[in-house]
Design goal:
Length: 280
């Protein structure tokens, strides 16, 4: 049976202007496969803690999903599998902090996607965005579990001005995160998103959002016919041109959905690129 899509997927990692990398991701798409996975985590807690947290979360979630996708009934239980994998990762964080008290306070966001045939299933905790680009328009699928939406609402309501909202000190305060305790908010829709040929998914850490949605959309629109690796490079180039001394770690996967070709193909592993390098 020919899968409905061929996947063209690439990933990018950059430290931005930080001295260490707290993002981690795994993107697993093979041409001709019916199931594709992406798992991304953005760590918090500083050097030697945030990076450990993100690696724990990505490793645990990806391992569990990889194990479960071998089941014939995987799609019937995929939403439960996503939730259980996230909670298992949260328990691993708790166990690690109990064993290594110096890492207490660490945590990580999570966004994980599973594509099965034409359906996208996903889970997210925190503020790492999941974008769908379709027909020239960019849309964020998941909720932002931070104070940013409330601050933006205050701007729209005229309670504070635009610049105050943009620079608000609480803007990046998370309202939900994996941190070894009870998770306040989990975004995991009951129904999958139906995908189409030509769709593009961007699974990212919030570092990509140093670009506005309009700027990201502009890049995707200008390069939508390019390979995913070239699109990833263009996004990194656009971030570099900001020359922002506060640029956070940036990580993302670009997944393009193309019409499947009815032919034998060789598995192609996605490219992972180190883009913007720290200055100084």
């Amino acid at each position: 049976m020919t899968p409905p899509f061929d996947f063209d997927a690439s990933s990018a990692l950059s430290m931005g202007q930080r001295s260490y990398q707290e993002d981690a991701l795994i993107c697993d798409f093979s041409r001709g496969a019916e199931i594709g996975l992406t798992v991304l985590a953005d760590g918090m807690g500083g050097h030697a803690a945030g990076d450990v947290a993100s690696k724990i979360v990505v490793t645990e979630v990806f391992s569990e999903l990889t194990f479960q996708r071998g089941n014939e009934a995987f799609e019937e239980t995929v939403r439960t599998n996503l939730f259980d994998a996230a909670m298992a990762a949260n328990a691993c964080l708790r166990d690690h902090m109990e064993t290594h008290p110096e890492t207490r306070g660490m945590g990580a966001t999570l966004v994980a996607t599973v594509i099965i045939n034409k359906r996208l299933y996903w889970i997210s905790i925190g503020d790492s965005p999941l974008f769908l680009y379709r027909n020239g328009s960019l849309k964020q699928l998941n909720e932002d579990h931070s104070m940013a939406p409330q601050i933006d609402f205050m701007v729209k309501s005229g309670l504070i001005d635009h610049e105050e909202g943009r620079c608000h000190p609480d803007r990046n305060t998370l309202t939900s995160v994996l941190f070894g305790e009870k998770v306040p908010l989990v975004d995991c829709p009951q129904e999958p998103t139906e995908l189409q040929v030509g769709d593009m998914l961007i699974v990212a850490s919030d570092g990509l959002q140093f670009l506005t949605d309009a700027e990201i959309e502009e890049v995707l629109c200008a390069h939508e016919d390019d390979h995913s690796a070239e699109i990833a490079d263009r996004l990194l180039d656009r971030l570099a041109k900001l020359n922002d001394p506060d640029l956070d770690n940036v990580s993302f996967s670009v997944v393009k959905l193309k019409e499947a070709q009815n032919q034998n193909v060789t598995d192609a592993k996605p490219a992972v690129r180190e883009g913007i390098r720290r200055v100084g």
